[in-house]
Design brief:
The chain has 95 residues and is mainly beta. It has a domain of 66 residues. 8% of the residues lie in helices and 27% in strands. It has one helix and four strands. The protein has a four-stranded antiparallel beta sheet with strand order 1-2-4-3, with helices on one face. A hairpin with a 5-residue loop joins strand 3 and strand 4. The radius of gyration is 17 Å and the shape is flat. The N and C termini lie far apart (48 Å).
């Protein structure tokens, strides 16, 4: 695994030594036949939480997962994960 940080984003590369896979062949975990499956949600979660996600064939076999997450601009309020800015974890209450 390798992590690359820039001022704008964090990029994560994960190398898999298995036989590799194509993203289009991964079953949809939200399909009726997969809802009660005990596995198969990792790709779904990575796609949901990251701003960019892709799978490439590994240079020596397997697969390389590349994920990127945009970082808040320096000096800006931290994001609370839902697209809006927040200065603390506590809910905001009007006076």
């Amino acid at each position: 695994m390798a992590i690359e940080l820039t001022e704008e984003r964090m990029i994560i590369h994960v190398l898999d030594e298995g036989k590799g896979f194509r993203l289009t062949d991964v079953p949809d975990p939200l399909a009726q036949e997969n809802l009660l499956s005990t596995s198969g949600r990792g790709i779904f979660l990575m796609k949901a939480f990251m701003d960019e996600f892709d799978v490439h064939p590994g240079k020596t076999g397997g697969a390389e997962l590349v994920m990127a997450k945009r970082l808040p601009a320096l000096g800006s309020p931290h994001s609370n994960g839902n697209g809006s800015a927040s200065n603390s974890g506590a809910p905001h209450q009007e006076a």
